[in-house]
Each structure stands twice: as C-alpha cells, then as structure tokens.
C-alpha cells in the first residue's frame, strides 16, 4: 500500500507546487465527468445529436435553443460544492506553497473553495457575454432568462465564456500555464484522462522529478509520472497536503 504520508512530505517540503486538474476532481462534488458510463458524453441529448456536436461552435449558432437546453440541463450544477480535495489546495496556496491551479473544468469550484490563482483553460459557466455589446452577464442572469436563449439588454445573444469544440484556447493563458509548469518543483495532476489536447500535453513541460498523478484509471502519461496514485482525489489530496490523517 502506498504511503501517502511519506509522499505528502515530498509535497509539503516544496515552495513551488503547481496543480493541474480535470473533470475527475469535480465528480465527488456531484458533477459528472465526460467519458464514464454516467458521464456527459453518454447523456440523452433529446435531439439525436451526440453531445460533442451540441457543444460545438457551429451547433451553438445554428441551433442555439437546443444548445442551451442541453447546456442548462447538463453543464450547470448550481448545488455543487467544493469537497476536501479543493480545500486542501486552498490550504497549500495560503501557505505560499501552491503557485497556481490549472484546470480544464468550467464549474468554478476551485474559486468557490477559496483558491485565487486559477487558470481556467476551458473558460467558466460563471462568465457570459453579449455577442453584440460584449456586456458581462452572470450565471444567475443566464439561468433566469425568460426564454431558453438569454438576451442582453441591447438585444444581443448571450454566449457562455466556455471553449466549445471548434474554438481555440486562449494562447496567453496557455503560455502562462506552460510557464508555471516548467518552473514548478512539484507537479500534481488529478482527475484527468490526459487525452484532451492541447491541455494534456502541458505535463510534458514539467522538468522536475516530483510529478504526482492522481487518477482512478490509467492515463497515457502514467509512465511519465514519478508517483501514480490510483485513488480518490477528495480522499488523497487532504492527506498529501497535511490537513487529514
């Protein structure tokens, strides 16, 4: 059995930790992942179109009502709360050890837990903007809109600030993520299959010798990691951070 306390010492002795997480870090908050049996990609869309197509830029503009119906039903989780794994990262950040959280998630749970330097590679459901006047709209405004498709005061259509299929990542944000990882002493990766590019390849920029990979299933980068932990992120991360036995 892996000695989590000993591994935690390696992490807690560092003052330059970077965390990189995916959908698996939110499942224990009640948010489905993408590829599991109960995941988003197996959800019933109701329109005989796969979820990947619904969550594309072309579909958003061609079938906006169908997009928003699926989006509001399956990507918005208003009752989800941070779990002990999120809180452990806040603990490390407040100690000055964790320098950045890089996430593929759009749920905002890291910020809800109290983390401050969060790089959201795929955007956030909490940010929405008018396609005409660029005015910001909160998630509450989007959910309270009279029709399925939220409209701005100017009459323009509101789009979630999330990266859809056929859209590119923010290159400045990606460059920041690369720099954090390249300079990190410890890299902790959790809850991601490491198959979605270009985000997955970010781990290759890590130059150190303390790469922790926490995931319940194997990934293409298991052999690249120094420590592979096949366990629950919400259970393991507090132990590694020294806030739980």
TrEMBL record:
<feature type="binding site">
    <location>
        <position position="133"/>
    </location>
    <ligand>
        <name>Zn(2+)</name>
    </ligand>
</feature>
<comment type="similarity">
    <text>Belongs to the sirtuin family. Class U subfamily.</text>
</comment>
<keyword id="KW-0862">Zinc</keyword>
<keyword id="KW-0520">NAD</keyword>
<feature type="binding site">
    <location>
        <position position="122"/>
    </location>
    <ligand>
        <name>NAD(+)</name>
    </ligand>
</feature>
<keyword id="KW-0963">Cytoplasm</keyword>
<dbReference type="GO" id="GO:0070403">
    <property type="term" value="F:NAD+ binding"/>
</dbReference>
<feature type="binding site">
    <location>
        <position position="107"/>
    </location>
    <ligand>
        <name>NAD(+)</name>
    </ligand>
</feature>
<dbReference type="InterPro" id="IPR029035">
    <property type="entry name" value="DHS-like_NAD/FAD-binding_dom"/>
</dbReference>
<feature type="binding site">
    <location>
        <position position="34"/>
    </location>
    <ligand>
        <name>NAD(+)</name>
    </ligand>
</feature>
<dbReference type="InterPro" id="IPR003000">
    <property type="entry name" value="Sirtuin"/>
</dbReference>
<dbReference type="InterPro" id="IPR028628">
    <property type="entry name" value="Sirtuin_class_U"/>
</dbReference>
<feature type="binding site">
    <location>
        <position position="27"/>
    </location>
    <ligand>
        <name>NAD(+)</name>
    </ligand>
</feature>
<feature type="binding site">
    <location>
        <position position="106"/>
    </location>
    <ligand>
        <name>NAD(+)</name>
    </ligand>
</feature>
<feature type="binding site">
    <location>
        <position position="34"/>
    </location>
    <ligand>
        <name>nicotinamide</name>
    </ligand>
</feature>
<feature type="binding site">
    <location>
        <position position="23"/>
    </location>
    <ligand>
        <name>NAD(+)</name>
    </ligand>
</feature>
<dbReference type="InterPro" id="IPR026591">
    <property type="entry name" value="Sirtuin_cat_small_dom_sf"/>
</dbReference>
<feature type="binding site">
    <location>
        <position position="104"/>
    </location>
    <ligand>
        <name>NAD(+)</name>
    </ligand>
</feature>
<feature type="binding site">
    <location>
        <position position="192"/>
    </location>
    <ligand>
        <name>NAD(+)</name>
    </ligand>
</feature>
<feature type="binding site">
    <location>
        <position position="193"/>
    </location>
    <ligand>
        <name>NAD(+)</name>
    </ligand>
</feature>
<feature type="binding site">
    <location>
        <position position="106"/>
    </location>
    <ligand>
        <name>nicotinamide</name>
    </ligand>
</feature>
<dbReference type="GO" id="GO:0017136">
    <property type="term" value="F:histone deacetylase activity, NAD-dependent"/>
</dbReference>
<dbReference type="InterPro" id="IPR050134">
    <property type="entry name" value="NAD-dep_sirtuin_deacylases"/>
</dbReference>
<dbReference type="GO" id="GO:0005737">
    <property type="term" value="C:cytoplasm"/>
</dbReference>
<feature type="binding site">
    <location>
        <position position="130"/>
    </location>
    <ligand>
        <name>Zn(2+)</name>
    </ligand>
</feature>
<keyword id="KW-0479">Metal-binding</keyword>
<dbReference type="GO" id="GO:0008270">
    <property type="term" value="F:zinc ion binding"/>
</dbReference>
<protein>
    <recommendedName>
        <fullName>NAD-dependent protein deacetylase</fullName>
        <ecNumber>2.3.1.286</ecNumber>
    </recommendedName>
</protein>
<feature type="binding site">
    <location>
        <position position="152"/>
    </location>
    <ligand>
        <name>Zn(2+)</name>
    </ligand>
</feature>
<comment type="function">
    <text>NAD-dependent protein deacetylase which modulates the activities of several enzymes which are inactive in their acetylated form.</text>
</comment>
<feature type="binding site">
    <location>
        <position position="35"/>
    </location>
    <ligand>
        <name>NAD(+)</name>
    </ligand>
</feature>
<feature type="domain" description="Deacetylase sirtuin-type">
    <location>
        <begin position="1"/>
        <end position="245"/>
    </location>
</feature>
<feature type="binding site">
    <location>
        <position position="107"/>
    </location>
    <ligand>
        <name>nicotinamide</name>
    </ligand>
</feature>
<feature type="binding site">
    <location>
        <position position="215"/>
    </location>
    <ligand>
        <name>NAD(+)</name>
    </ligand>
</feature>
<dbReference type="InterPro" id="IPR026590">
    <property type="entry name" value="Ssirtuin_cat_dom"/>
</dbReference>
<feature type="binding site">
    <location>
        <position position="154"/>
    </location>
    <ligand>
        <name>Zn(2+)</name>
    </ligand>
</feature>
<keyword id="KW-0808">Transferase</keyword>
<feature type="active site" description="Proton acceptor">
    <location>
        <position position="122"/>
    </location>
</feature>
<dbReference type="Pfam" id="PF02146">
    <property type="entry name" value="SIR2"/>
</dbReference>
